[in-house]
From TrEMBL:
Keywords of the record: DNA-binding, Transcription, Transcription regulation
Role of this protein: NodD regulates the expression of the nodABCFE genes which encode other nodulation proteins. NodD is also a negative regulator of its own expression. Binds flavonoids as inducers.
InterPro entries registered for this protein in UniProt: LysR-type_TF_proteobact-type, LysR_HTH_N, LysR_subst-bd, WH-like_DNA-bd_sf, WH_DNA-bd_sf
Highest taxon of the lineage: Bacteria
Pfam families: HTH_1, LysR_substrate
Similarity field: Belongs to the LysR transcriptional regulatory family.
DNA-binding in keyword set: yes
UniProt protein name: LysR family transcriptional regulator
Residue ranges of every copy of the HTH lysR-type domain listed in the record: 1-59
PROSITE patterns, sorted: HTH_LYSR
Species whose genome carries this gene: Bradyrhizobium campsiandrae
Amino acid sequence: MDKVASLRAFVKVVESGSFAEAGRQLRLSRSAISKYIADLEESLGAQLLNRTTRHASPTENGQRYFERAVVILSEIEAADQAVTQAQSAPRGLLRVNAPMSFGTMRLGPVLADFMENYSELQLQIVLSDDLLDPVQDGFDVTLRIADLESSSLIARKIMPVPRMICASPDYLAQHGTPKHPQDLRAHASLTYGFLLTGNQWKLTGRDGDHWIQPDWSLCVNNAEVLRDAAIKGKGLALLPQFIAADALHKGELRTVLDDYSAPPLALYAVYPPTRHLSVKVRLFIDFLVERFGGEGEGAGMG
């Protein structure tokens, strides 16, 4: 038995005084209304309505039941409205995990605009270069810049993240400029060793793919640290474009092996699979796509 449907039918019969009128209001046949009432009375073991050929009125038990049923149905309607309103005007807490560098350099400057648009949301941002578990750590959205492995999580691509090999002018003057990927074996390298490829660098050019295991002197999970070490002349670094851009503009770094490219990473918004994606998550991801989705330069590792 559909208890809620039976309650609605009963309340309409009492309010209208007629099975036929209740059926018209609920867009149901008279026989369907009669069945709902019969099922309700059978489940309760009590008669709720006095019936004549043209009129129905509540019994004493029916009147008491009617008064409670009206309250129950109003509470259900209020609950439905609360969810509907939450879908159109998001409220509550939105927990977001993002890499440190992307969070400080790219996400931070645009958060105020998102907060302005959705002032009733509480936004909690956790910046970390550790690969936190989105489900176990309770995040609504996790931003990752990577070549993602397949998983049970849903990932939406926000933008590509191209990378380039950079070094300081002083380093290149002292150690020479590599002309081919194989030349990297003779250079000190600064590596981000937390990708699926580990410390290996893959470079692709007209002569095909080259996998290089660099002789690294620094391995770190934050690309800004790699950039700073490269500026100080400590070696070659494979950097996301946005992290290297300012140093390149100032002449503190130069790109090498421009005829070869590393596989681009991408910024993804990762979230657990749910039947109904919450509106606050959808709006936040849509906001990121709007702000960053048209960029070719990408964001950056950690």
